[in-house]
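Hey,
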Amino acid sequence: MTTQPTEPSAPAGNTPVTFYDHLLPGIEAGRYRITVDQQLPAEQLPGARLDPVEQIVDVRAAQFRLDPSWVHAVYPAPHSQGPFHGLLPHITLNPAALPWEREPFTGNVQNPARAPWPALLLFGEGELPGDPNALGTTASVTVRALLDGDAAVSGPALDKNAVDPALLDTPCRVVDVPRDLLAQLLPELSDLAFLAHVRSGGEDAAPAEGQDGRLRQEAHAVITTARFPATAQGRYVAHLVSLEGHAPAGAQADGKPVRLVSLHSWTFTSCPESGDSFSRLAGRFAPGHGEHSAAPLRPTPAADASLPEELGTLLEQGMVPMTHITDSGERALAWYSGPFLPRVAPGLPRPADGHFPDADGLLLHEPHTGTFATGYACAWNVGRALALADPGFATTLVRLRHQGRLRRATDRQYATYRRQLFHNAPSAGPAPRMAARAAAPTPREQFEELLRGDALDALAESFAAPDDAGPRPRTVRAAPTAYRLDAPRRSSAPQSAPSDARETAAWLARLRTLSGVPFDCLVPDQRMLPPESLRLFHVDRGWLDALLDGARSLDRHPGADTATDAELDGLLDGHGSVPAAGLLLRSALVPGWPTLRVEAHAASGTVPVKVIRREALGADVLLMLFDRMPDRLTISEPHQGLHFGMDDQGNVALRSLAPGEVGRPLGRSVPVGADPALTVTTPAGARVLDLGRLAARLAEDVKPGSPLSPAEFAVQLVRAPEQLTLSFEGTTR
């Protein structure tokens, strides 16, 4: 099947996304009759004619339901809340040609503008009789019942014989829409083409379930609604409906509701007054917003607290006073610090063998207050608890240690055997025994040296056949030159690490990124990370080492497991960088923008910082770990630009359509929200774009004398991603 993309349009800058008007299939879905008729020239074969041959071909495509995996993304995200009153909800589909595989209307309605057959309709509370609360409720009927029709509603007029018989008894979801409401929400046929285009590249802000928002270059179809959510708070349901088999809005005068097939639906809540737009949320992290401002992670005391200097210094260093229960059951005051500190932690002295055998050796005395610092001891205990909680890891680690001890015991036995065999026994052969080597010979060398004497004759005598079994085989003495005692020795090191060692090192490498560590151990006091705050921190390498020592302590004997520990240390060094810094973001930005972009740079913003781990911890906390401390952060919306609509002032920012500059902001805008000719309020209270007038109005400014194509129209409606850049000084203290 061939595709026919139109001329691309793309926003300029760092946004790797391209828009196309449509992606047309080589042939549309439907039933076709192929006739082959051939007639030979009469002057050559008078009266000769071949009978025509006919073949019925069905070209099938999605019609009554969509595979859930075809829905790549939707916006706003399902069940989300936010100020969406200036945005046009949209859906992104994986089959890029799907919206143009069928015709939207029946009755010989011409479609020169290539309008899509599905449309995205937005309904509020109290608008759908079958779903008054906008919860996404639909009715389920079979395809056969849908095509047979219902006297109470106006359904699609489709030929049942042209439908795949296997689909007739399968269910599909339908919604019954009042005809007058549909006439207010559904644009004219000539304007429907502006609501669909093809996007190549980019990443999605709210991927559908089972999808991700990673940057890709394959094409996706994007279908947008023409309706804005109201300026008042309300719940909405978006339905991707099929227009195939229906008449254009307003073509029929009967008052029956229109039964539409719902291919996909989701709900969200628009809260214009919630104050949680991206610009307002991200703006709080700028300097001057109190506890919301980006700051080091520390339990800062209250401004009016009169604390001794020693205590204030400990708090500034990230220490938190906690209750400590000793082994004897006594309760005492102690200081706790997790792996995230507002300063570079001093190096932790290591034992002679490099690993702490227990937590008691990690209880450090704090001289200013006469108490203990329990952070490292807690890390050791947490690591051991996590190891014990994972039966697979515990079994693998214990088996690895037992295998290492068995190998070393075998090596000792071989060494003892060699000493007894070569240094105590007399020489048995005529050849003089070689002088003791500086290093012990290999088993092959030992065996070859035995064969140089009379051992070969003795073996032949021992394994020869008995006298009554026939003639004895002739004994052949091996020539001395057949054996090379000076052959290079095989390396005693294993060719590759055992699988148990690799699995253990991989588990420890994940633990080194603090995977599975309870959040209370990372942030011991909730006041260190208040709502709507961003905190930077250094990672204490000593805390990570103590955590791993606790996990590796299972069945560990310091003297017997030195070689195994050294092997694990070598494998761990090959598992990438160790976290050295990071940030914690607690904000509504985390659930509202799942693919929020956070870019970190060092050296005054010239060197990118490697992200070792990025994970959402809970509903509204984002953790990122870096290989170094950044001095500049850029927080921005996903750069794919798949937010269509107006800015906070109700304007559409104009973009250039000139070759080589497509998408470049022109610095001027068109007021759309305040113009009743462009944003129409219907009798039902819906705010709907007049697509034809808006396209003509935008063309006057960006493309005088020529109409806008769907791709060019989409470029104008793209909402530029907002971003906030933060610079930090003194982050290496």
